[in-house]
Write a structure and sequence with these properties.
alpha/beta; globular; six-stranded mixed beta sheet; 10 helices
């Protein structure tokens, strides 16, 4: 399939939410909106006990923001709205009363690192290296920063945010706490994710809900914080520096 999509399938009380975009699973505004809505709906669905979040395709988990849409931004309001899309997905994951398991099969960049960081438990293949590339185009990882910092710590987050040209391998990400486990192949990853998700279905949903609130304690201001960060990115994306950098991607 070459069309972008967000799908949800429910089997044995596990909801699998999958997103795809032909441009390396980059995330334009409409896909971000569908993703946030689908996560919210799965969170409210009483038939669902566990959520798996994954992307389609073989090689890239997520290339982050859609460059096509970044290039098209002409005013601060549009910029803020675009970056709010990432804020809405992260906040939907944060507030969801169910555990969200991440299945990261390949490289993840920028906003994709933010998604992986907002998972409650993330599993990956050895090919799932990460890069926070935002500084490269004249912005910064402002919206995803709090989620990445929460997982990697200030030290790990600032290291990859400043070293914006470098992919850090899956083992580095595991040592920093982003990935719980790293597998040799996608087949091994899928088997492990399926088994883990099924096992989580045996737990008391009320206990899970309380645990999520405990894990995310201290993030209660993220509704406001991430939107403030979206305004910063929305302003910076209009700078002549960034416009010049983005020309390379036209």
């Amino acid at each position: 399939m070459t069309q972008a999509y967000v799908t949800q399938t429910i089997q044995n009380q596990v909801a699998t939410i999958e997103f795809f975009h032909p441009a390396h699973n980059s995330l334009p505004g409409d896909i971000l909106a569908k993703l946030a809505k689908t996560i919210e709906e799965a969170g409210k669905n009483e038939e669902v006990l566990v959520i798996i979040l994954k992307s389609g395709g073989e090689r890239t988990f997520c290339a982050g923001a859609s460059f096509k849409e970044l290039i098209a931004i002409e005013d601060e309001k549009t910029g803020e709205k675009f970056f709010s899309g990432f804020a809405n997905v992260i906040n939907a994951m944060r507030k969801c009363p169910k555990f969200i398991i991440g299945r990261v099969q390949g490289k993840t960049v920028g906003g994709g690192v933010g998604l992986a960081s907002a998972m409650d438990y993330c599993m990956a293949t050895k090919f799932a290296s990460i890069k926070l590339s935002e500084l490269n185009v004249g912005i910064g990882p402002f919206v995803v920063g709090p989620a990445v910092q929460r997982k990697l710590g200030v030290s790990g987050m600032s290291q990859i945010a400043i070293d914006a040209n470098t992919f850090y391998d899956a083992e580095w990400a595991r040592q920093k706490g982003l990935y719980a486990n790293v597998y040799e192949s996608t087949e091994e990853l899928d088997k492990a994710v399926a088994e883990f998700a099924q096992n989580l279905c045996n737990y008391n949903p009320e206990a899970v809900k309380e645990m999520k609130q405990m894990f995310w304690r201290g993030t209660e201001d993220w509704d406001e914080l991430l939107l403030e960060r979206a305004k910063i990115s929305g302003r910076l994306v209009l700078s002549s520096f960034t416009k010049e950098k983005l020309k390379r991607f036209e």
